[in-house]
Specification:
Length: 198
């Protein structure tokens, strides 16, 4: 997705060879027009699939899941990292390791909102090691729902997340794939998607 790549180059900051800061427009201050465009792009990438739910994890994936669910016309669910006092029903749970925070936590989704009748698209802001996404895939599996695929806004292709997901048979679409990065330079993998430049 050309606009996303351009914004990463203009407003993103590679703090190291593995850490990319995009808090000016994606995950602290949010560009709403870009976010809605991202949602439309995910809907386009998975067009023709009878998706019934979009699933993400709090907090940085929520606005992308919302934008995608608006474009698809279906509800979205976010897995909670902490159990609220109002979350009293039965839950699907999975342990997830956060690359950004360098900690493991348990995420949960109410069994009321995900069932074997659902066809689920998972959306998140980053694909790096894939651990958070694998946790969500685990939850989809527990529910008996069918996983349609995973959409990641930014993929660090030099890490092993995509390989883990593809080894599990998961369809993956990332809107900006970074081949390598350093504080001085960010290099993207250029792909063709259905006749369009991503």
């Amino acid at each position: 997705m050309r606009r996303l790549q351009e914004q990463i180059l203009r407003d993103g900051q590679a703090l190291s060879n593995t850490v990319l800061k995009v808090d000016k427009f994606l995950n602290h201050q949010v560009d709403p027009e870009l976010t809605m465009e991202i949602g439309r792009e995910f809907a386009l990438r998975f067009q023709g699939e009878p998706i019934t739910k979009v699933l993400t994890i709090e907090a940085s994936g929520i606005h992308f899941a919302l934008a995608t669910s608006v474009a698809l016309g279906v509800p979205f669910i976010y897995a909670k990292k902490k159990k609220a006092v109002t979350l009293t029903e039965d839950l699907y749970t999975a342990e997830v390791f956060s690359f950004t925070r360098q900690e493991t936590f348990q995420v949960s989704v109410s069994k009321r909102y995900l069932s074997e009748q659902d066809r689920v698209l998972i959306v998140d802001d980053f694909l790096a090691t894939g651990d958070a996404l694998l946790g969500l895939i685990n939850i989809v599996g527990q529910s008996g729902a069918q996983l349609v695929g995973v959409g990641a806004v930014i993929e660090k292709s030099f890490q092993d997340g995509r390989g883990k997901l593809e080894a599990a048979g998961v369809r993956v679409h990332s809107l900006a794939r970074i081949a390598s990065m350093s504080p001085a330079h960010i290099e993207f993998i250029e792909e063709q998607e259905e006749g369009r430049s991503c």
